[in-house]
Amino acid sequence: MKSRLLAGLAAVVLAIIGAILVVSYAQGADARAVQGLDPVTVLVVKKAVPAGTSVEALKAFVASEDLPGKAVTKSALKNLDGIAEKVTAVELLPGEQLVAERLIAPEDLQAQGSVDIPEGLQEISFQLEPQRVVGGRIAPGDRVGIFINLKSGGIEAKPDKQTTQLSIHKVLVTAVQRAPLATPSPQPSADGSAPAAEDMSLPTGSLLLTVAVNDADATKIVYASEFTEFASLWLSKEPLNATESGEPGIMTKPEVYK
Fold it and tell me: Residues 181-195, buried b or exposed e (16+ Cβ, 10 A)?
């Protein structure tokens, strides 16, 4: 009886040791794989960073990471030394390497925000939530498609039906305004360690967009923005080379599954 008990305990101990060894091996697999590919230590974005973020504030959003040498961009930065006066030129997304081209002087960023208005067009502004504006990833100079959703009255033959249409194509965005990024001073935790950076991966608050359109399209935008009980807007990023198939035209419930 005693020998069977000892044998059982020994089996349990061996099983635990085996499990620990397997887990340890698996955890080190990625590191061993990188070590065999001439790893290079570069800065990688860990949390989404808004355009115009200073290098000082940027430190909380990036971390050093070993990447295979062949996968490292030539201009990837290894540290932020000597560039304290710069800001991010565009929004940075988690997982991308921080490259030198993404950091510019503040005055250059201001210049990038100016967009020439084509002759004959007028500017108009409207406010939308980030999920309606490609997650907030829209900048001056981009082109967008404007979808108009009508709760009723979109089709005379079926006035009670809800409809959606990509009504205005390739609209020039001239300005994007949003609430400034809050950067409170980090407070040390109870054990004295540095606090984790605030997760800014999801945009918050509404965006105020200004676009350049003709008078007819401006009227459509005003109607859909003003009479929200009847209509609403949704945007897509639609560059000049985006394909316009002409379909599905006006979308109703029966057309969704066609």
Answer: eeeeeeeeeeeeeee
118-132 per-residue burial string, b: 16 or more CB within 10 A, e: under 16: eeebeebebebebeb
Do 142 and 236 touch, CB atoms closer than 8 A? no
Predicted TM-score (pTM) of the model is: 0.51
Which regions in the chain score pLDDT beneath 70? Answer: 1-15, 18-19, 21-37, 109-114, 179-204, 247-248
Distances (CA, A) of 201 to 23, 57, 210: 30, 15, 24
Domains and CATH numbers, the chain: 39-111 (3.90.1210.10), 117-180+199-255 (no CATH)
Cβ–Cβ < 8 Å for 88, 195: no
State the Cα–Cα distance between residues 149 and 190, nearest whole angstrom.
51
Alpha helix ranges (H) inside 106-257? 106-112, 215-226
What pLDDT, on a 0 to 100 scale, did the predictor assign at position 199? 43
